[in-house]
Please model this.
Amino acid sequence: MTKSLPQSIDKYSLSVYATWDLSWKKLDEQCKIFLRLCSCYHYEGIPRRLFRKALDNLSWEEDVESLAAYPVLSFLTSQKLEWDDIWMDNIVETISLYSLISIEKGGAYSLHPLVHHWIRESIESAKQTDFQLEAQSIVAIAMNDADIAFVIYGMNVGTIPELMISGNHCGIN
Model:
């Protein structure tokens, strides 16, 4: 992690934070980036299809390189910018081996609230805004016209209301 968090508030030599930090150090950079993105969403119900829809909808965008999500989606897909189930499975399975993410029914991901908070708080403040904008950009790209209409008129559209990124995530007030 980039920020050092307290290791323990008691005399126990290996706190939960220290254990998570050991797991974090074993993850490759794609897994870390994915977790940082997830920390900008609500900790429960992060739909797998959000990332698929964002990648599928990139072909409709005119100037892809100018999108806030472009650098992170490009990195996560090894510059391919195409959905690959095996790629996503590898990232999520690797992270879940360290108990930093769980897979829910229907292909949604969840982080334990403390893991969510720990990841979010350990992002360098200079990069928090970047991750927030990238996470928002992924949601915006993933939404089609019908999703946008439902959000504007306040109707429930599956995952969109739950994913709305609140200002307190990733340090944005």
Notes: Confidence is low (pLDDT under 50) at residues 155-162, 164-173. Residues 153 and 160 are 13 Å apart (CA to CA).
